[in-house]
Specification:
Layout (H helix, E strand, L loop, with lengths): L2 H35 L7 H30 L6 H23 L1 H10 L3 H41 L1
Helix pairs in contact: 1-2, 2-3, 3-5, 4-5
């Protein structure tokens, strides 16, 4: 693949990381504001913060694996077990993000219900479903890549 395309995608991955770096920095103050506005969920302050940081960590792990996958493509070793492993890790990161946001849905439901803002609930659902779609897509790509590697190795043995 052309190097320019992979460089563009790597720059895009870095740009996708910047908002979550900023969010990670301001997350404690955001959570303090939320707890001040909804004092009934004070007991969820630290679990929600831990879940948010866990989701951010899984997001960065998935971005790192995507970066590694682009390196493999750049080095013409895209059809290798390393690429399959990277896709497997991306799939696991997406499942972790979906699970963490699913665990935080009761808090988002309470916030949306008391403030009459169903958009908060929709926000959580969008993240859960997007993560599930990414996990399924990575699993399908992982299976296809594994089959292509198997076919390639069979062809190499028959020659």
């Amino acid at each position: 693949m052309k190097r320019g395309t992979t460089i563009f995608l790597k720059v895009t991955l870095v740009l996708l990381a910047i908002p979550f770096l900023v969010l990670g920095y301001f997350l404690p103050s955001i959570m303090n504001e939320i707890v001040d506005y909804w004092p009934k969920i004070d007991y969820l302050h630290y679990p929600a913060l831990l879940g948010a940081y866990g989701a951010i960590a899984a997001y960065f792990a998935a971005l790192f694996q995507s970066f590694k996958l682009l390196d493999y493509i750049e080095k013409d070793i895209a059809f290798s077990d390393l690429s399959v492993l990277a896709l497997k890790r991306i799939k696991h990161c997406a499942v972790v993000i979906a699970a963490l946001f699913t665990l935080e849905m009761p808090m988002l439901y309470y916030m949306g219900e008391t403030d009459d803002a169903p958009g908060v609930i929709l926000f959580g659902l969008v993240i859960v479903f997007a993560s599930i779609v990414i996990a399924v897509f990575a699993a399908v790509l992982q299976g296809l890549l594994k089959n292509a590697i198997d076919i390639k190795s069979e062809n190499d043995l028959t020659v």
